[in-house]
Specification:
CATH topology of the largest domain: Aspartate Aminotransferase, domain 2
Bound molecules: glutamine
CATH class of the largest domain: Alpha Beta
Order of helices and strands: HEHHHEHEHEHEHEEEHHHEEHEEEH
Strand order of the largest sheet: 2-8-7-6-5-3-4
Largest sheet: 7 strands, mixed
């Protein structure tokens, strides 16, 4: 049996492959970005309440529960600088993953160029290839993971869409106002659609602010924001995310969503609608938890002679394994799983050329403090033997 060509031009997710390896070796999973602690108790109570209503167990309205869309429209005001219309500008999807695929399918035709910043979160490339689009890569140059403004222009000229991700996975960059303005300029100049993945919008450090390109007045009609509740409420298994876009783009996204998944899980949508009404203290708690974790892991890696970047947001960091004598990221990741009992993701899976990213492995630090302490002990033990 021959599979369609569109599924033969990309490989399986390396992040999820590393999760399977972690389970096989009984290693601590710092590969896939999911918390190892319970979601907030009040969210689970809201889920229990929602599950008692018989109708909640049937399809929600295809575009998402009205209660959730209304709460989300209010929640997004500080991020987007305006009140979205829940009826024509918001669609609830099965995770940001579906949101990205639906957004790309909605605006990219076969042969269109899609600009992807690299290192990239691995989903953007298959999403582009599945619709017959052509990925074009814009490098975020190590060690500070910034683009060269001239390369930005060169990449975007003649393209159809630009995929932005801020806070950024895997580098932890939070793009500055100046950078967002540079993006806005090229999006306007070359008439692009901007698809911006803001899954980590609440997870920023050192008093930084998350800035969405959708806030720029001139980009309002050409920006599709993709978001998720997975990371904000520690429920990555629920698979609930959203797409926020002006009415014309929302209509296009909804046509895809309607036939791709019909609707996101209904009881989970109802529970999340209550969480969106929580006060600022919850988000402060979340940020300070992850900032403590970031500092613990960065200090731990430094203490054993491993270099890494200090993320500005999201919950990943890239560790330079050449400082430990490895020449290859996959070899380093396998060694760490077997010898230190720690699963990471080889850096090359975030780059389109397999030789790029070879100096890095990615650590996810969305774990309990005790888990991270065990990771550092495991690394220290192998560093002493090395
Ligand atoms: N976003 C998470 C990560 O980067 C989870 C990936 C996934 O399996 N969808 O690890």
């Amino acid at each position: 049996m021959r599979a369609a060509r569109r599924v033969e031009c990309f490989r399986e997710s390396v992040i999820r492959e590393m999760t399977r390896l972690a389970e096989q070796y009984g290693a601590i999973n710092l590969a896939q970005g999911f918390p190892d602690f319970s979601p907030p108790a009040r969210l689970l109570e809201a889920l229990e309440q929602a599950s008692k209503l018989p109708l909640n167990h049937q399809y929600s309205i295809t575009w998402g529960s009205p209660r959730l869309r209304r709460a989300l429209a209010d929640h997004l005001v500080p991020f987007l600088g305006r009140q979205l219309d829940p009826d024509s500008e918001l669609t609830i999807t099965c995770g940001a993953t579906e949101g990205i695929v639906a957004a790309v399918m909605a605006v990219v035709d076969p042969g269109d160029v899609v600009v992807i910043m690299e290192p990239f979160y691995e989903n953007y490339v298959p999403a582009t290839l599945l619709v017959g689009g052509r990925p074009r890569f814009l490098t975020l140059h190590a060690p500070d993971f910034r683009w060269d403004p001239q390369e930005l222009h060169r990449a975007c000229r003649g393209a159809r869409a630009l995929i932005v991700n801020t806070p950024h996975n895997p580098t932890g960059r939070v793009f500055t106002l100046e950078e967002i303005e540079q993006l806005a300029e090229v999006v306007q100049r070359y008439g692009l659609i901007c698809i911006t993945d803001e899954t980590y919008q609440h997870i920023v450090y050192d008093d930084r602010r998350h800035l969405s390109p959708a806030r720029v007045e001139a980009l309002r009609d050409s920006t599709i924001v993709v978001g998720s509740f997975s990371k904000t409420y520690s429920v990555t298994g629920w698979r609930v995310g959203y797409v926020a876009a002006p009415p014309a783009l929302t209509e296009a996204v909804r046509r895809v969503h309607d036939f791709l998944t019909v609707a996101a899980p209904n009881p989970l949508q109802e529970a999340i609608s209550t969480a969106l009404r929580w006060g600022a203290d919850y988000y402060q708690w979340l940020r300070s938890l992850y900032q403590r974790n970031r500092d613990l892991l960065v200090d731990g890696l430094h203490s054993i002679g491993l270099k890494c970047n200090v993320p500005e947001g999201a919950y990943y960091l890239l560790c330079d394994v050449t400082s430990w004598g490895f020449e290859d990221d996959t070899e380093a990741a396998k060694y760490l799983i077997r010898r230190a009992g720690v699963a990471t993701v080889p850096g090359s899976s975030f780059y389109h050329r397999s030789d790029a990213g070879r100096r890095f492995v990615r650590f996810a630090f969305c774990k309990q403090e005790s888990t991270l302490r065990r990771v550092i002990e495991g690394l220290q033990a192998v560093s002493l033997q090395a």
